[in-house]
Amino acid sequence: MDIDGSRAEVEAAERGVILRVEGSVERVALLEDVVGRHLASFGEKDGLVVRWHRSDGTPGSMQPAAQRTQLPA
């Protein structure tokens, strides 16, 4: 998917899903957050955590499974 000169790719792999994002430093951080949060919410019941590893060695972000609060009955 291309968004304002930035790119996000999703690839199914044997041991999981490979996510790639490309763009400016600011856009990469934004894409990590948006793509990671959405994917983590899809895997919420399984406790999915998304961890990003950047090719330039700078720390990537992490999006844990969404914690939803149960409303009282």
Give an overview of the whole structure.
This protein is an alpha+beta fold. The protein has one domain (2-63). It is built from 1 helix and 5 strands, in the order βββαββ. The protein has one helix spanning 25-42; strands at 2-3, 6-13, 16-22, 50-53, 59-63. The strands form 2 sheets. Strands 1-2-3 form a 3-stranded antiparallel sheet, with helices on one face. Strand 4 (50-53) and strand 5 (59-63) form a beta hairpin. The longest helix has 18 residues, at 25-42. It is globular, with a radius of gyration of 14 Å.
Keywords:
two-stranded antiparallel sheet, 5 strands, three-stranded antiparallel beta sheet, alpha+beta, 25% helix, 1 helix, 73 residues
Oligomer: single chain
Number of separate domains: 1
Q: N-to-C terminal Cα separation, in Å?
A: 41 Å
Could you tell me the strand content as a percent range? 35-45%
Q: What would you report as the Rg, rounded to the nearest angstrom?
A: 14 Å
Secondary-structure element series: EEEHEE
**Tally of individual helices:** 1
Classify the secondary structure makeup into a structural class: alpha+beta
How do the strands and helices of this protein lay out in sequence?
Layout lengths: L1 E2 L2 E8 L2 E7 L2 H18 L7 E4 L5 E5 L10
Antiparallel strand pairs: 1-2, 2-3, 4-5
Summarize the structure.
25% of the residues lie in helices and 36% in strands. It has one helix at residues 25-42; strands at residues 2-3, 6-13, 16-22, 50-53, 59-63. The radius of gyration is 14 Å and the shape is globular.
